[in-house]
Amino acid sequence: MLALQGAFREHRLVLERMGIKSREVKKAEHLEGIDGLIIPGGESTTIGKLLVDFGIREPLLRLIEKGLPLFGTCAGMIVMAKEIVGSRQPRLGVMDIVVRRNAFGRQVDSFETDLEVKGIEGGPVRAVFIRAPYIEAAGEGVEILAEFAGKAVMARQENCLATAFHPELTSDNRIHQLFIQMVEDYLRKK
Q: Is residue 166 annotated as a catalytic residue, yes or no?
């Protein structure tokens, strides 16, 4: 997982519960040999700036172009978006989505809810929203997987998966399992 800033430890704990090995990516050389990458929630402006400052952005983009699976939660979704409403902050821009930052309000407006997620069986997924974005617009190649209050909050485009919420803050591993399936599919194709 990208470990520049944000809730990367929480993602690591989920993967450990699932029996999946992971490592922290803090420098460009840490990208070597990875099979997928999680961009955690945190401060999207800081994460984007550090991707550039630490020389990670360009080599990561080359890996993503070759099919490396990428999963972003909350700030991770923002960093993955091609466009951020009202912002020119550094980003990867790998998903054809337009996102609105802090779209559901400030920290005090954080909430939890149950979401029906396309492709996830076993009932609704518990979703934790903390200063969450939403997807305001999506290109043709983007599949919207979940909505809340009429707003898109989870999407997939090819090897990229993004959630506006924090699945790492619940005991439900199903969204992480979806990402692991993407990684397994990628490894089979390599």
A: yes
Q: Please name which of 94, 27, 91 lies closest in space to residue 54, comparing C-alpha atoms.
A: 27
The CATH class, in words, for 8-189 is alpha beta
pLDDT in tens, 152-190: 999 999 999 999 999 999 999 999 999 999 999 999 987
Rounded Cα–Cα distance for residues 156 and 166 (Å): 16
What are the extents of the domains in the chain?
A: 8-189
Choose the catalytic residue: 11, 160, 168, 176: 168
Instruction: Give yes or no: 160 in active site.
Output: no
Catalytic residue among 11, 16, 32, 74: 74
Q: Which of 11, 160, 166, 176 is catalytic?
A: 166
